[in-house]
């Protein structure tokens, strides 16, 4: 559900992820801790996307909230 989500940015967030560490990606775009959830979605119908990276390293997480590969950027922001 990306319709109605706030576009946090029109370029992805570069983050360092740790293998096996559960993450909560903000799907609503309202979090002050982008790209991660801070609970700002409460009452909006949005929920964070919970994911656990299978390897450590750099990742590009979606900031426009319209990716087809949640939570990872798929370039959708370039058409906004």
Descriptive key words:
two-stranded antiparallel sheet, globular, 4 strands, 0% helix, mainly beta, two-stranded antiparallel ribbon, 80 residues
Beta-strand content bin: 15-25%
Q: Largest beta sheet: what is the strand line-up? A: 1-4
The low-confidence parts are: none
Structural class comes to mainly beta
Write the element-wise H/E pattern from the N-terminal end onward.
EEEE
The tally of beta strands, per DSSP, is 4
How many domains? The number is 1
What's the helical proportion of residues?
under 10%
Q: Main beta sheet: strand number and arrangement?
A: 2 strands, antiparallel
Number of helices: 0
Q: Radius of gyration, Cα only, in angstroms? A: 12 Å
Average residue pLDDT: 96
Silhouette: globular
Spatial separation of the terminal alpha carbons: 17 Å
How would you describe this protein?
This protein is mainly beta. It has one domain. It has strands at residues 13-17, 23-25, 49-51, 57-61. The strands form two sheets. It has a two-stranded antiparallel sheet. The protein has a two-stranded antiparallel ribbon with strand order 2-3. The mean pLDDT is 96.
How would the blueprint of this fold be written?
Blueprint: E1 13-17, E2 23-25, E3 49-51, E4 57-61
Antiparallel strand pairs: 1-4, 2-3
In short:
The chain has 80 residues and is mainly β.
